[in-house]
Structure formats: C-alpha cells, structure tokens
Specification:
Structural class: alpha+beta
Largest sheet: 6 strands, antiparallel
Oligomer: single chain
Number of helices: 6
Strand content: 25-35%
Order of helices and strands: HEEHHEEEEEHEEEEHEHE
CATH class of the largest domain: Alpha Beta
Distance between the termini: 51 Å
CATH topology of the largest domain: endopeptidase fold (from Nostoc punctiforme)
Number of strands: 13
Helix content: 25-40%
CATH superfamily of the largest domain: endopeptidase domain like (from Nostoc punctiforme)
Length: 223
C-alpha cells in the first residue's frame, strides 16, 4: 500500500486538535491521550499506509523501518531544501532512543509538526518554526518518500525566511523575525507582539531550551 503523507500530516493535526499531552510511558501514539515524538509519527505513518512493525517504534528504530517503507535518506548532517512530508530524525543513529533523539515531519519549507515537551503546561503536538522544532546540534537524517516530487519550495540556506518566534535567555525575552532578533523591552511590547503573532498563526510560547536558543543565535543576528 502506498504511503500518503497528507494522511500522516492530517493525523498529526487530529492528535493536536484532541489536545494529547506528552509522555514516553503511556501509549505513545495518542491512543490514551498521551504521545511522544516517535510514537505519534509512527502511528501517523501507519494510518497513512506504512507497515506494522509489531510494536511502537522509538526514534532510533524508525531509521530502518522508514527505508523498508520506501523512504530514502536524502541528507545526513547537511543542508537540504525541505519540503512538505520530509521526516527528519535527530540524534546519532544507533544511540538516539528515548530522550537522546527527536523526530519531526516538515509541513512546509520552514515549519514542522511534532510531539514535544516544552514545559509542564506546554506539551503535546505543536506546529513550530524550524528553529524552534529542530535540534540540529544532535545531528540529523532527512527521509523522503521515493518518487516524491521536489515540490515548489525555494531553496533557502538554513530556511530562515518565515521564522517568527519568542525565546528567553537570562530572564530576557527576545523576538526573532527571519534571521534577526531584538530584545523585548517591556510587558506592553511583549503583549502587542504576541497578539500580532497569534493573528498571523504563530506559536507565542517563549522558548527556553538551551539547545534551541543556541541554534537560534547561531542562525540569527541581534539588531
């Protein structure tokens, strides 16, 4: 049976709309209201036509299973032009199970959908800009269905164009747009920025993960 990535992505959105929370110890697929990164991607691909592995795969075991299901690894630790439907696994192959790895599905050249833990009050399925959702410092492997068209995405080094997010470092909140970020000086300004972001369909979570913040600051410059 051919795999339909639109079905997989739609299932991720369905889990998001159900409001599942993050857990690595429950069903992991969202079946009991909880999921993790690999479990939700595995379940979504199963519903899209992928084979039954016999168990809910972890991040590390996804590699071989994806290849068995007509995906090919098109990039390893190097830049590529992302397209909707790309599955990206983070963490060293052979040692990326559990919290040592992560997996996302790209829904555009610059955004991903994934199950993640941001904080006790912010966890589950999120649509994030690439900089917020992709821990490149762990290393990465890009899988794409064989025969999938290259799409109309415009090549974009590190794909920075559509990024808009908030991050926090040393108690200060910064607003990133494209490849530049600025310090948000006061709560009134922050509230106005969040209102604008919500209207534009962006996540207003203030990212504090040190790996994510370091990656953002490598890509962007302060103005």
């Amino acid at each position: 049976m051919a795999i339909n990535m639109e079905t997989a992505i739609n299932n991720m959105y369905a889990l998001k709309n159900r409001g599942i929370t993050y857990s690595m110890t429950g069903a992991r697929t969202g079946a009991d209201g909880t999921g993790d990164c690999s479990g939700t991607v595995y379940d979504s691909l199963r519903k899209a036509g992928a084979s039954d592995a016999g168990w809910v795969l972890n991040t590390d075991s996804l590699h071989n299973w994806l290849v068995q299901n007509t995906f090919e690894c098109i990039a390893t630790n190097k830049e590529w032009t992302a397209k909707r439907g790309d599955v990206v696994i983070f963490g060293p192959k052979g040692a990326s199970g559990g919290s040592a790895g992560h997996v996302v599905i790209f829904i555009s050249n610059t955004q991903v959908i994934h199950c993640t833990y941001k904080s006790a009050s912010a966890n589950g399925i999120y649509v994030d800009n690439e900089a917020a959702g992709c821990p490149y410092s762990m290393g990465w492997y890009v899988y794409r269905l064989k025969g999938s068209s290259s799409g109309s995405e415009t090549p974009n080094t590190k794909k920075r164009g559509d990024i808009m997010l908030l991050f926090k470092e040393n108690g200060k909140v910064y607003f990133l747009v494209g490849n530049q970020y600025t310090y948000v000086k006061n709560p009134t300004e922050l509230s106005a920025i969040k209102t604008m972001m919500k209207q534009a369909g962006y996540d207003t979570h203030e990212h504090t993960n040190t790996t994510q913040v370091a990656y953002i600051k490598r890509l962007a410059t302060e103005k």
